[in-house]
Amino acid sequence: MLWLCLHFSSLSIELREPRDQFPTAVVDRQNSRRHVIACNKAARQAGIHPHMDASTALTLMPSLKLVDRSRSQERKALQALASWSEQFSSFVTLDAQRWLLWIEIGASLHYFGGLTALMEKITRGLGELDYSFATGIAPTVEAAALLTQHADAAPVYDQQAIKLAISALPVCLLAISPTAVDAFRDVGWQYIGEVLNAPRDQLARRFGPELTRYLQRLLGELADPREPYRTPSTYRRHLELSFAIDTTEPLLFPLKRMLGELQGYLRARDTALQALQLTLVHEKQADTVLQLGTTQPQRDAQSLWLLLREMLEQTELPEAILELILTVNQFVAPNNTQLDFFDDKSKHEQSWSNLLDKLRARLGTNAVKHMGLQDTHLPEKAWCVINHEATDKPAIAHNSPQRPLWLMQPRLLHTLPALLGKPERIECNWWSGDDVQRDYYIAETPEGSRWWLYRDVQSAQWYLHGLWG
Fold it and tell me: What is the CA 120 to chain-centroid distance, rounded?
Protein backbone atom coordinates (compact mmCIF):
# COMPACT_ATOMS: atom_id res chain seq x y z
CA MET A 1 0.00 0.00 0.00
CA LEU A 2 1.06 3.58 -0.58
CA TRP A 3 -0.43 6.33 1.57
CA LEU A 4 -0.76 10.01 0.77
CA CYS A 5 -1.18 12.02 3.96
CA LEU A 6 -2.63 15.53 3.87
CA HIS A 7 -1.94 17.73 6.88
CA PHE A 8 -4.23 20.76 7.20
CA SER A 9 -2.27 22.66 9.83
CA SER A 10 -4.29 25.87 9.33
CA LEU A 11 -7.67 24.17 9.20
CA SER A 12 -9.06 25.81 12.34
CA ILE A 13 -8.39 29.34 11.07
CA GLU A 14 -9.31 28.63 7.42
CA LEU A 15 -12.72 27.43 8.54
CA ARG A 16 -13.65 30.91 9.67
CA GLU A 17 -16.06 32.27 7.07
CA PRO A 18 -16.21 35.07 6.15
CA ARG A 19 -12.45 35.45 6.53
CA ASP A 20 -11.16 37.83 9.18
CA GLN A 21 -9.24 40.80 7.79
CA PHE A 22 -7.78 41.87 11.13
CA PRO A 23 -5.26 39.81 13.20
CA THR A 24 -7.00 36.66 14.49
CA ALA A 25 -5.73 33.54 16.23
CA VAL A 26 -7.44 30.30 17.20
CA VAL A 27 -6.58 29.08 20.70
CA ASP A 28 -6.94 25.76 22.47
CA ARG A 29 -6.89 25.01 26.18
CA GLN A 30 -4.57 22.47 27.77
CA ASN A 31 -5.25 22.26 31.49
CA SER A 32 -5.22 25.93 32.58
CA ARG A 33 -3.04 27.12 29.72
CA ARG A 34 -4.39 28.64 26.52
CA HIS A 35 -2.09 28.51 23.51
CA VAL A 36 -2.30 29.50 19.87
CA ILE A 37 -2.86 26.63 17.42
CA ALA A 38 -3.37 28.67 14.22
CA CYS A 39 -3.46 32.30 13.09
CA ASN A 40 -4.21 34.24 9.94
CA LYS A 41 -1.74 36.15 7.77
CA ALA A 42 -2.23 39.46 9.57
CA ALA A 43 -1.38 37.85 12.91
CA ARG A 44 1.67 36.04 11.51
CA GLN A 45 3.02 39.30 10.14
CA ALA A 46 2.83 40.68 13.67
CA GLY A 47 4.93 37.82 15.05
CA ILE A 48 2.16 35.53 16.30
CA HIS A 49 2.76 31.82 15.66
CA PRO A 50 1.33 28.44 16.71
CA HIS A 51 2.31 27.07 20.16
CA MET A 52 2.65 30.62 21.51
CA ASP A 53 0.98 31.22 24.84
CA ALA A 54 -2.24 33.23 24.48
CA SER A 55 -1.22 35.77 27.12
CA THR A 56 2.12 36.27 25.40
CA ALA A 57 0.36 36.80 22.07
CA LEU A 58 -1.91 39.45 23.61
CA THR A 59 1.07 41.18 25.17
CA LEU A 60 2.74 41.28 21.78
CA MET A 61 -0.46 42.49 20.06
CA PRO A 62 -3.24 43.79 22.37
CA SER A 63 -5.64 44.13 19.41
CA LEU A 64 -5.30 40.42 18.52
CA LYS A 65 -8.66 38.65 18.32
CA LEU A 66 -8.64 35.25 20.06
CA VAL A 67 -11.17 32.62 18.97
CA ASP A 68 -11.75 29.30 20.75
CA ARG A 69 -11.17 26.15 18.76
CA SER A 70 -14.26 24.36 17.42
CA ARG A 71 -13.49 20.65 17.25
CA SER A 72 -16.93 19.83 15.86
CA GLN A 73 -16.45 22.20 12.91
CA GLU A 74 -13.01 20.76 12.22
CA ARG A 75 -14.42 17.23 12.26
CA LYS A 76 -17.22 18.18 9.85
CA ALA A 77 -14.75 19.88 7.52
CA LEU A 78 -12.42 16.85 7.50
CA GLN A 79 -15.36 14.52 6.86
CA ALA A 80 -16.39 16.68 3.91
CA LEU A 81 -12.80 16.52 2.64
CA ALA A 82 -12.82 12.75 3.09
CA SER A 83 -15.95 12.49 0.94
CA TRP A 84 -14.27 14.75 -1.62
CA SER A 85 -11.12 12.60 -1.58
CA GLU A 86 -12.98 9.41 -2.43
CA GLN A 87 -12.96 10.48 -6.08
CA PHE A 88 -9.26 9.50 -6.02
CA SER A 89 -9.34 6.33 -3.93
CA SER A 90 -11.69 3.78 -2.42
CA PHE A 91 -9.92 3.92 0.96
CA VAL A 92 -9.77 7.18 2.90
CA THR A 93 -9.30 7.62 6.63
CA LEU A 94 -8.82 10.63 8.89
CA ASP A 95 -7.71 11.87 12.30
CA ALA A 96 -9.62 15.05 13.15
CA GLN A 97 -7.59 15.62 16.34
CA ARG A 98 -4.36 15.98 14.36
CA TRP A 99 -5.94 17.52 11.20
CA LEU A 100 -4.74 14.55 9.13
CA LEU A 101 -6.35 12.86 6.14
CA TRP A 102 -4.91 9.74 4.49
CA ILE A 103 -5.66 8.55 0.95
CA GLU A 104 -4.50 5.11 -0.21
CA ILE A 105 -3.14 5.94 -3.67
CA GLY A 106 -1.23 2.77 -4.53
CA ALA A 107 -4.19 1.30 -6.39
CA SER A 108 -5.00 4.60 -8.14
CA LEU A 109 -1.66 5.51 -9.72
CA HIS A 110 -2.20 3.61 -12.97
CA TYR A 111 -5.75 4.92 -13.40
CA PHE A 112 -4.72 8.59 -13.00
CA GLY A 113 -1.56 8.28 -15.08
CA GLY A 114 1.08 8.13 -12.36
CA LEU A 115 1.91 9.96 -9.14
CA THR A 116 2.70 13.32 -10.75
CA ALA A 117 -0.64 13.51 -12.58
CA LEU A 118 -2.56 12.37 -9.51
CA MET A 119 -0.87 14.91 -7.24
CA GLU A 120 -1.61 17.68 -9.75
CA LYS A 121 -5.32 16.82 -9.65
CA ILE A 122 -5.41 16.69 -5.84
CA THR A 123 -3.38 19.88 -5.44
CA ARG A 124 -5.53 21.76 -7.96
CA GLY A 125 -8.75 20.54 -6.32
CA LEU A 126 -7.69 21.52 -2.80
CA GLY A 127 -6.52 24.87 -4.14
CA GLU A 128 -10.01 25.49 -5.51
CA LEU A 129 -11.36 24.68 -2.03
CA ASP A 130 -8.88 27.25 -0.66
CA TYR A 131 -7.22 24.98 1.89
CA SER A 132 -3.50 25.06 2.63
CA PHE A 133 -1.92 21.69 3.29
CA ALA A 134 1.30 19.68 3.45
CA THR A 135 1.79 16.24 1.93
CA GLY A 136 3.68 13.09 2.81
CA ILE A 137 3.84 9.81 0.89
CA ALA A 138 5.00 6.54 2.44
CA PRO A 139 4.05 2.84 2.70
CA THR A 140 2.74 3.28 6.27
CA VAL A 141 0.14 5.65 7.68
CA GLU A 142 2.28 7.14 10.44
CA ALA A 143 5.37 7.52 8.26
CA ALA A 144 3.34 9.47 5.72
CA ALA A 145 2.05 11.67 8.56
CA LEU A 146 5.60 12.39 9.75
CA LEU A 147 6.74 13.29 6.23
CA THR A 148 4.15 16.09 6.09
CA GLN A 149 6.38 17.88 8.63
CA HIS A 150 9.32 17.81 6.21
CA ALA A 151 8.87 20.49 3.56
CA ASP A 152 11.24 18.86 1.06
CA ALA A 153 10.52 15.22 1.82
CA ALA A 154 10.51 13.00 -1.27
CA PRO A 155 7.95 10.22 -1.60
CA VAL A 156 9.01 6.99 0.08
CA TYR A 157 7.98 3.91 -1.91
CA ASP A 158 9.87 1.17 -0.09
CA GLN A 159 9.31 0.12 3.51
CA GLN A 160 13.03 -0.28 4.05
CA ALA A 161 13.58 3.41 3.23
CA ILE A 162 11.24 4.75 5.92
CA LYS A 163 13.84 4.83 8.69
CA LEU A 164 16.30 6.85 6.63
CA ALA A 165 13.60 9.29 5.52
CA ILE A 166 12.38 10.16 9.03
CA SER A 167 15.55 9.85 11.13
CA ALA A 168 16.45 13.54 10.84
CA LEU A 169 13.05 14.78 12.01
CA PRO A 170 12.65 16.16 15.57
CA VAL A 171 11.54 13.64 18.15
CA CYS A 172 8.66 15.91 19.21
CA LEU A 173 6.84 15.03 15.97
CA LEU A 174 6.25 11.43 17.06
CA ALA A 175 2.62 10.70 17.97
CA ILE A 176 3.49 9.67 21.51
CA SER A 177 2.86 11.08 24.95
CA PRO A 178 4.55 14.38 25.95
CA THR A 179 6.06 12.55 28.94
CA ALA A 180 7.98 10.22 26.62
CA VAL A 181 9.17 13.16 24.50
CA ASP A 182 10.46 14.97 27.59
CA ALA A 183 12.22 11.80 28.72
CA PHE A 184 13.94 11.45 25.34
CA ARG A 185 15.14 15.04 25.57
CA ASP A 186 16.41 14.45 29.10
CA VAL A 187 18.78 11.78 27.81
CA GLY A 188 19.86 14.00 24.90
CA TRP A 189 17.81 12.45 22.10
CA GLN A 190 16.72 15.20 19.74
CA TYR A 191 15.94 13.25 16.56
CA ILE A 192 13.72 10.32 15.67
CA GLY A 193 16.66 8.30 14.38
CA GLU A 194 18.13 8.16 17.89
CA VAL A 195 14.90 6.65 19.22
CA LEU A 196 14.69 4.13 16.39
CA ASN A 197 18.26 2.97 17.07
CA ALA A 198 17.61 2.34 20.77
CA PRO A 199 17.01 -1.28 21.89
CA ARG A 200 13.28 -2.04 21.74
CA ASP A 201 13.26 -4.07 24.97
CA GLN A 202 14.71 -1.15 26.92
CA LEU A 203 12.14 1.25 25.45
CA ALA A 204 9.36 -1.18 26.36
CA ARG A 205 10.55 -1.48 29.97
CA ARG A 206 10.89 2.29 30.32
CA PHE A 207 7.78 3.51 28.47
CA GLY A 208 5.57 0.46 28.11
CA PRO A 209 4.78 -1.79 25.12
CA GLU A 210 2.54 0.76 23.42
CA LEU A 211 5.54 2.91 22.42
CA THR A 212 7.34 0.00 20.78
CA ARG A 213 4.15 -1.06 18.98
CA TYR A 214 3.81 2.49 17.66
CA LEU A 215 7.38 2.39 16.32
CA GLN A 216 6.70 -0.99 14.71
CA ARG A 217 3.60 0.38 12.99
CA LEU A 218 5.59 3.43 11.94
CA LEU A 219 8.23 1.28 10.22
CA GLY A 220 5.77 -1.24 8.79
CA GLU A 221 6.91 -4.09 11.03
CA LEU A 222 3.43 -4.37 12.54
CA ALA A 223 0.04 -4.01 10.83
CA ASP A 224 -1.69 -0.68 11.35
CA PRO A 225 -5.38 -1.23 10.43
CA ARG A 226 -7.46 1.96 10.15
CA GLU A 227 -11.20 2.45 9.99
CA PRO A 228 -12.13 3.68 6.50
CA TYR A 229 -14.36 6.69 6.17
CA ARG A 230 -17.76 5.78 4.75
CA THR A 231 -19.50 8.37 2.59
CA PRO A 232 -23.13 8.88 3.66
CA SER A 233 -25.89 7.96 1.19
CA THR A 234 -27.33 11.48 1.37
CA TYR A 235 -25.37 14.72 1.43
CA ARG A 236 -25.64 17.29 4.20
CA ARG A 237 -22.98 19.93 4.82
CA HIS A 238 -23.48 22.16 7.85
CA LEU A 239 -21.36 25.30 8.25
CA GLU A 240 -21.51 27.63 11.23
CA LEU A 241 -20.44 31.13 10.23
CA SER A 242 -17.82 32.91 12.31
CA PHE A 243 -20.20 35.79 12.92
CA ALA A 244 -23.69 36.80 11.84
CA ILE A 245 -23.92 38.44 8.42
CA ASP A 246 -26.87 40.41 7.10
CA THR A 247 -26.12 40.37 3.35
CA THR A 248 -25.81 37.50 0.91
CA GLU A 249 -22.58 38.59 -0.81
CA PRO A 250 -20.25 37.28 1.97
CA LEU A 251 -21.90 33.86 1.57
CA LEU A 252 -20.47 33.36 -1.92
CA PHE A 253 -16.99 32.29 -0.81
CA PRO A 254 -18.01 29.64 1.75
CA LEU A 255 -20.73 28.49 -0.62
CA LYS A 256 -18.16 27.99 -3.37
CA ARG A 257 -16.12 25.76 -1.05
CA MET A 258 -19.20 23.76 -0.01
CA LEU A 259 -20.15 23.17 -3.64
CA GLY A 260 -16.58 22.15 -4.45
CA GLU A 261 -16.78 19.53 -1.70
CA LEU A 262 -20.14 18.41 -3.08
CA GLN A 263 -18.64 18.07 -6.57
CA GLY A 264 -15.99 15.68 -5.22
CA TYR A 265 -18.68 13.71 -3.39
CA LEU A 266 -20.71 13.33 -6.61
CA ARG A 267 -17.68 12.28 -8.64
CA ALA A 268 -16.66 9.75 -5.99
CA ARG A 269 -20.11 8.14 -6.24
CA ASP A 270 -20.30 8.61 -10.03
CA THR A 271 -23.65 10.32 -9.69
CA ALA A 272 -25.27 13.72 -10.23
CA LEU A 273 -28.15 15.83 -8.94
CA GLN A 274 -31.08 17.76 -10.31
CA ALA A 275 -32.20 19.38 -7.05
CA LEU A 276 -30.50 20.72 -3.95
CA GLN A 277 -31.56 22.77 -0.96
CA LEU A 278 -29.68 25.63 0.67
CA THR A 279 -30.93 26.63 4.12
CA LEU A 280 -29.98 29.97 5.65
CA VAL A 281 -30.37 29.70 9.42
CA HIS A 282 -31.35 32.80 11.40
CA GLU A 283 -31.34 33.37 15.14
CA LYS A 284 -35.03 34.19 15.70
CA GLN A 285 -36.74 34.27 12.33
CA ALA A 286 -37.73 31.16 10.38
CA ASP A 287 -35.05 29.66 8.15
CA THR A 288 -34.76 30.93 4.59
CA VAL A 289 -34.87 27.89 2.30
CA LEU A 290 -33.72 28.06 -1.33
CA GLN A 291 -34.67 25.18 -3.61
CA LEU A 292 -32.51 24.86 -6.72
CA GLY A 293 -33.52 22.58 -9.59
CA THR A 294 -31.65 21.94 -12.83
CA THR A 295 -32.97 20.89 -16.22
CA GLN A 296 -30.34 18.20 -16.72
CA PRO A 297 -28.23 16.14 -14.29
CA GLN A 298 -25.54 18.39 -12.86
CA ARG A 299 -22.37 17.98 -10.78
CA ASP A 300 -20.23 20.94 -11.81
CA ALA A 301 -19.53 23.15 -8.80
CA GLN A 302 -19.04 26.32 -10.83
CA SER A 303 -22.39 25.95 -12.63
CA LEU A 304 -24.25 25.30 -9.37
CA TRP A 305 -22.50 28.24 -7.71
CA LEU A 306 -23.56 30.62 -10.50
CA LEU A 307 -27.18 29.48 -10.19
CA LEU A 308 -27.22 29.88 -6.40
CA ARG A 309 -25.61 33.29 -6.75
CA GLU A 310 -28.51 34.36 -8.97
CA MET A 311 -30.99 33.11 -6.37
CA LEU A 312 -29.18 34.80 -3.49
CA GLU A 313 -29.17 38.14 -5.29
CA GLN A 314 -32.98 37.98 -5.46
CA THR A 315 -33.39 36.86 -1.82
CA GLU A 316 -34.47 39.28 0.90
CA LEU A 317 -33.17 38.28 4.31
CA PRO A 318 -35.50 38.69 7.31
CA GLU A 319 -32.54 38.59 9.70
CA ALA A 320 -28.79 38.04 9.82
CA ILE A 321 -27.50 34.58 8.86
CA LEU A 322 -25.76 32.35 11.40
CA GLU A 323 -25.41 29.02 9.59
CA LEU A 324 -25.52 27.45 6.14
CA ILE A 325 -26.88 23.97 5.42
CA LEU A 326 -26.48 22.38 1.99
CA THR A 327 -28.61 19.27 1.45
CA VAL A 328 -29.04 16.78 -1.38
CA ASN A 329 -31.42 13.88 -0.81
CA GLN A 330 -31.88 12.43 -4.29
CA PHE A 331 -29.34 11.61 -6.96
CA VAL A 332 -29.57 10.76 -10.65
CA ALA A 333 -27.27 9.20 -13.20
CA PRO A 334 -24.88 11.70 -14.83
CA ASN A 335 -25.20 12.52 -18.50
CA ASN A 336 -23.37 10.19 -20.86
CA THR A 337 -20.12 11.85 -21.93
CA GLN A 338 -19.03 9.04 -24.26
CA LEU A 339 -20.38 10.72 -27.40
CA ASP A 340 -19.30 11.04 -30.99
CA PHE A 341 -16.43 13.47 -31.48
CA PHE A 342 -18.28 15.34 -34.20
CA ASP A 343 -21.67 15.37 -32.43
CA ASP A 344 -22.50 18.92 -31.28
CA LYS A 345 -26.05 18.05 -30.20
CA SER A 346 -25.09 17.50 -26.56
CA LYS A 347 -23.26 20.84 -26.42
CA HIS A 348 -26.32 22.62 -27.80
CA GLU A 349 -28.63 20.87 -25.32
CA GLN A 350 -26.29 21.71 -22.45
CA SER A 351 -26.19 25.41 -23.42
CA TRP A 352 -29.98 25.48 -23.65
CA SER A 353 -30.33 23.77 -20.25
CA ASN A 354 -27.89 26.23 -18.66
CA LEU A 355 -29.93 29.15 -20.03
CA LEU A 356 -33.18 27.71 -18.64
CA ASP A 357 -31.59 27.05 -15.24
CA LYS A 358 -30.19 30.59 -15.08
CA LEU A 359 -33.56 32.12 -15.99
CA ARG A 360 -35.29 30.05 -13.30
CA ALA A 361 -32.70 31.05 -10.71
CA ARG A 362 -32.99 34.76 -11.55
CA LEU A 363 -36.72 35.10 -12.25
CA GLY A 364 -38.19 32.26 -10.22
CA THR A 365 -39.29 28.76 -11.13
CA ASN A 366 -42.78 29.79 -12.25
CA ALA A 367 -41.46 32.48 -14.58
CA VAL A 368 -40.12 29.92 -17.05
CA LYS A 369 -42.79 27.91 -18.81
CA HIS A 370 -42.88 25.10 -21.34
CA MET A 371 -45.26 24.06 -24.04
CA GLY A 372 -47.09 20.84 -23.23
CA LEU A 373 -49.58 18.50 -24.85
CA GLN A 374 -53.24 17.92 -24.02
CA ASP A 375 -55.31 14.85 -24.76
CA THR A 376 -57.51 16.13 -27.57
CA HIS A 377 -57.59 15.78 -31.38
CA LEU A 378 -58.36 19.44 -32.06
CA PRO A 379 -55.04 21.07 -33.07
CA GLU A 380 -55.89 24.45 -31.51
CA LYS A 381 -56.60 22.77 -28.16
CA ALA A 382 -53.92 20.08 -28.17
CA TRP A 383 -51.25 22.28 -26.57
CA CYS A 384 -50.93 24.12 -23.27
CA VAL A 385 -48.41 26.07 -21.17
CA ILE A 386 -46.93 24.41 -18.09
CA ASN A 387 -44.54 25.65 -15.41
CA HIS A 388 -42.31 22.59 -15.34
CA GLU A 389 -41.15 20.29 -18.06
CA ALA A 390 -43.14 17.10 -17.76
CA THR A 391 -41.19 14.05 -16.64
CA ASP A 392 -43.65 11.63 -18.25
CA LYS A 393 -43.94 12.92 -21.79
CA PRO A 394 -46.58 11.41 -24.08
CA ALA A 395 -45.19 9.07 -26.68
CA ILE A 396 -45.45 10.27 -30.26
CA ALA A 397 -45.45 7.60 -32.94
CA HIS A 398 -42.91 7.92 -35.74
CA ASN A 399 -45.66 7.59 -38.37
CA SER A 400 -47.75 10.44 -36.94
CA PRO A 401 -49.02 12.99 -39.51
CA GLN A 402 -46.96 16.11 -40.08
CA ARG A 403 -47.87 19.20 -38.08
CA PRO A 404 -46.68 22.80 -38.65
CA LEU A 405 -45.11 24.69 -35.77
CA TRP A 406 -46.86 27.92 -36.80
CA LEU A 407 -50.55 27.45 -35.96
CA MET A 408 -52.94 30.38 -36.51
CA GLN A 409 -56.59 31.22 -36.12
CA PRO A 410 -58.50 29.48 -38.99
CA ARG A 411 -58.65 31.88 -41.94
CA LEU A 412 -61.33 31.48 -44.64
CA LEU A 413 -59.89 30.67 -48.08
CA HIS A 414 -61.57 31.56 -51.40
CA THR A 415 -58.82 30.25 -53.69
CA LEU A 416 -57.10 26.92 -53.11
CA PRO A 417 -53.43 26.22 -53.83
CA ALA A 418 -52.28 22.83 -55.10
CA LEU A 419 -53.19 20.04 -52.64
CA LEU A 420 -50.58 17.38 -51.86
CA GLY A 421 -51.32 13.82 -50.82
CA LYS A 422 -54.36 12.36 -49.17
CA PRO A 423 -56.51 14.15 -46.57
CA GLU A 424 -56.49 13.48 -42.83
CA ARG A 425 -59.93 13.31 -41.19
CA ILE A 426 -60.26 14.81 -37.69
CA GLU A 427 -63.66 14.25 -36.10
CA CYS A 428 -64.38 14.74 -32.39
CA ASN A 429 -66.61 16.32 -29.70
CA TRP A 430 -69.72 14.57 -31.04
CA TRP A 431 -70.34 13.31 -27.51
CA SER A 432 -70.66 16.90 -26.18
CA GLY A 433 -72.97 18.17 -28.94
CA ASP A 434 -70.19 20.32 -30.45
CA ASP A 435 -69.36 18.03 -33.35
CA VAL A 436 -66.25 18.92 -35.40
CA GLN A 437 -65.53 17.26 -38.77
CA ARG A 438 -62.51 18.42 -40.76
CA ASP A 439 -60.47 17.09 -43.66
CA TYR A 440 -56.89 18.40 -43.39
CA TYR A 441 -54.59 18.76 -46.42
CA ILE A 442 -51.02 19.84 -47.04
CA ALA A 443 -50.86 22.35 -49.88
CA GLU A 444 -48.12 24.17 -51.76
CA THR A 445 -48.45 27.71 -53.17
CA PRO A 446 -46.89 28.89 -56.44
CA GLU A 447 -44.27 30.76 -54.37
CA GLY A 448 -43.19 27.47 -52.75
CA SER A 449 -44.79 27.94 -49.31
CA ARG A 450 -46.41 24.96 -47.64
CA TRP A 451 -49.83 25.44 -45.99
CA TRP A 452 -51.84 23.32 -43.66
CA LEU A 453 -55.52 23.78 -44.48
CA TYR A 454 -58.76 21.96 -43.92
CA ARG A 455 -62.25 21.63 -45.36
CA ASP A 456 -65.11 21.86 -42.89
CA VAL A 457 -67.29 18.86 -43.77
CA GLN A 458 -70.51 20.44 -42.48
CA SER A 459 -70.16 23.84 -44.22
CA ALA A 460 -67.88 22.77 -47.12
CA GLN A 461 -65.74 25.90 -46.43
CA TRP A 462 -61.93 25.86 -46.71
CA TYR A 463 -59.70 27.35 -43.97
CA LEU A 464 -55.97 28.00 -43.61
CA HIS A 465 -54.84 26.71 -40.19
CA GLY A 466 -51.03 26.56 -40.21
CA LEU A 467 -47.80 27.33 -42.07
CA TRP A 468 -44.45 25.64 -42.45
CA GLY A 469 -41.36 27.80 -42.59
Answer: 19
Mapping DSSP to helix (H, G, I), strand (E, B) and coil, where does residue 103 land? Answer: strand
In b/e form, how buried is each residue of 232-247, taking b as 16+ CB within 10 angstroms? eeebebbbbbbeebee
* In contact, 237 and 258? CB cutoff 8 Å: yes
Q: Measure the CA–CA gap between 1 and 141, rounded to whole angstroms.
A: 10
Which of the four pLDDT bands, split at 50, 70 and 90, describes residue 351?
confident
In the chain, the amino acid numbered 92 is: V
Say what angle helices 115-128 and 252-268 make with each other, to 10 degrees: 150
pTM of structure: 0.77
Backbone angles phi, psi at 312, to 5 degrees: -65, -35
With contact defined as beta carbons under 8 Å apart, do 184 and 195 qualify? yes
Is the CB of residue 19 less than 8 Å from the CB of residue 38?
no
pLDDT digits (tens, 9 = 90+) for 26-40: 999 988 889 999 999
pLDDT tens readout for residues 272-281: 999 999 999 9
pLDDT: which is higher, 412 or 339: 412
User: What integer is the mean pLDDT of 91-103?
Assistant: 95
95 forms beta bridges with 100
Among 401, 409, 415, 402, residue whose Cα is nearest residue 462: 415
* DSSP conformation letters of 72-137: HHHHHHHHHHHHHHTTT-S-EEEEGGGTEEEEE-TTTHHHHTSHHHHHHHHHHHHHHTT---EEEE
**What does the alpha-carbon distance between residue 222 and residue 139 come to, in Å, rounded to a whole number?**
12
Mean pLDDT for 183-209 is 92
* Beta carbons within 10 angstroms of residue 339's beta carbon: 12
Q: Give the number of other CB atoms < 10 A from CB of residue 286.
A: 9
Q: Which of 22, 11, 3 is CA-nearest to residue 243?
A: 22
Q: How far apart are CA 67 and CA 467, in angstroms?
A: 71
Q: How far apart are CA 350 and CA 337, in angstroms?
A: 12
Q: Which of 326, 429, 328, 342 has the alpha carbon at shortest distance from 377?
A: 429
Q: Could you tell me which of 287, 311, 231, 240 has the C-alpha nearest to residue 264?
A: 231
The number of beta carbons lying within 10 Å of the beta carbon of residue 366 is 9
CA distance 187 to 185: 5
CA distance 447 to 466: 16
Contacts of 359 (CB under 8 A, 6+ apart): 367, 368
Q: Domains in the chain, ordered, with CATH?
A: 3-219 (no CATH), 235-356 (3.30.1490.100), 406-467 (no CATH)
* Element containing residue 218 per DSSP (H, E): helix 209-219
Judge whether 139 and 159 are in contact, CB under 8 Å.
yes
**pLDDT the model gives residue 350:** 67
* Whether pLDDT at 428 is above 90: no
The dihedral of CA 214, 217, 218, 219: what is its sign?
positive
What is residue 63's three-state secondary structure?
coil
